[in-house]
Amino acid sequence: MTPEEFRKAGHALIDWIADYRQKIPELPVRAQVEPGDIRGALPSHPPGGTDDFSALLADLERVIVPGITQVQHPMHFGWFPSNASLASVLGDIASSGIGTLGISWESCPALTELEEVMCDWMRELTGLGSQWRGTIHDTASTACVTAMILARERASHFSKNGAGLQGVAAPLVVYSTSQAHSSIAKAVQLAGFGNDNLHMVAEDPWTRAMLPDALAAAIEQDLAAGKIPAGIVCSVGATGTTAMDPVEEIAAIANRHGVWLHVDAAMAGSAMLLPECRHLWQGVEQADSLAWNPHKWMGTILDTALFYVRDVDHLEAVMSTNPSYLRSGADGQVTQYRDWGIPLGRRFRALKLWFHLRLDGVEAIRSRLRRDLDNARWFRERVEAAEDWEVVAPVPLQTVCIRHVPRDERGQPLCGEALDDHNLAWVKRINTSGAAFMSPSQLDGRWMVRVSIGVESTTREHVARLWELIQQSAAAG
Ligand SMILES: Cc1ncc(COP(=O)(O)O)c(C=O)c1O
């Protein structure tokens, strides 16, 4: 494709994206396809020749759009807000269009230095101190694997340089809670600790926050048993109910024992743009690493996961490679992001943040986040006031966890499996209809429904419409 052909097709694609975004509210929220439908609509073999761009665009509309669950839809209340602001989409297009190779400072100085500045801007916007240095990973999952490797290498005195974990005499232990996102257990496993050495610390029965006394006791117990406490993963906004572990108290314990503390604020990090929410990660300055995703609620399109550390020397000592073909005269004066994580080649992700912050503006993003907090408060109050409805967990941010507890024919509140079936049924009716989408989730082994508010286009009217739909669906069951 020549630049001139690209220009023509690119204009058509931008028009298509703009039209598509405008019509999202008219589409079903959940993809109305069965497994294999999309695959079946595609040719089994690659094309022999070339196609017209208009034919490709037509197939995008015909084949791909029906297979999309519309997370940009104002009636999407599932999982978490995965906003993809159009300003950041332009940054993403610029990143792809420029076609950089991010393998060293020399291969694209602008990529490295814009990434440094964006991480500093985001640090300042979330009220973090200047001791933090950041990078942009693809996801919080990758950031957590990186953090767990840093924890392992600190506790094992750089076992990677010798026999690895196979040469460490005692088991290394990581601490978290059952509320932590599944990526935490995965990171612990992949970093070589093994599931047996992931210690799930007791939680407060209502807030689901880690109990610091239980953490301290678990560490003492493991030390007495000859084990080596290596890492703690603390959730600021765990996925299920947005549980907030008390970072300050946990950090004091971590520092007392020299244990690496990673803070996973993947979803809730966006809230830290608001000074009034920062008490939720009070003590974060004492952690060793921290990750959060502007690609969730804040709305910089995937993949934009910020990863900060305080001790860059340790990070580089663990992650550095120094092959002769990547050396340059700038070494020692510049940041080499390949030494800050797992991949060598990186995308120019900082452009997405740069475009988003400059075109949408920080104050507009902040007021949208405040709107969502307000909508969540409004929704929680409606549910709390309604007969036979429960809010089953605190609502520190924008996710409200609810359950309908109707009475049975004897006038007793439904319980056990009958209660599960009823709640799964009303949410399934709504999700299947395409009118709205929510994620059911288990809490203490019983089903509830998470209503995650925060899509860029979701207004109070949408939340009010959802509440009506929910009540109608629950009454129909
Ligand atoms: C609290 C929390 N941590 C980690 C993750 C994983 O995020 P990612 O998809 O960026 O790996 C999520 C995603 O939902 C999350 O909510």
Descriptive account of the structure:
With 477 residues, this protein is of the alpha/beta class. The chain is built from 14 helices and 12 strands. The protein has helices at 3-23, 37-40, 53-64, 86-98, 109-125, 140-155, 182-190, 212-224, 247-257, 312-319, 350-360, 362-385, 416-433, 460-476, and strands at residues 76-77, 133-137, 172-176, 198-200, 228-235, 260-264, 289-292, 305-309, 389-391, 399-404, 437-443, 446-452. Strands 2-8-7-6-5-3-4 form a 7-stranded mixed sheet, with helices on both faces. Helix 5 crosses helix 11 (350-360) and helix 12 packs parallel to helix 14 (460-476). The longest helix has 24 residues, at 362-385. It starts with a helix and ends with a helix. The mean pLDDT is 97. Bound molecules: pyridoxal-5'-phosphate. Pyridoxal-5'-phosphate binds at residues 80, 139-141, 181, 183, 235, 237-239, 264, 266-267, 293, 305.
What is this structure, in a nutshell?
The chain has helices at 3-23, 37-40, 53-64, 86-98, 109-125, 140-155, 182-190, 212-224, 247-257, 312-319, 350-360, 362-385, 416-433, 460-476, and strands at 76-77, 133-137, 172-176, 198-200, 228-235, 260-264, 289-292, 305-309, 389-391, 399-404, 437-443, 446-452. By secondary structure, the protein is α/β, with parallel strands linked by helices.
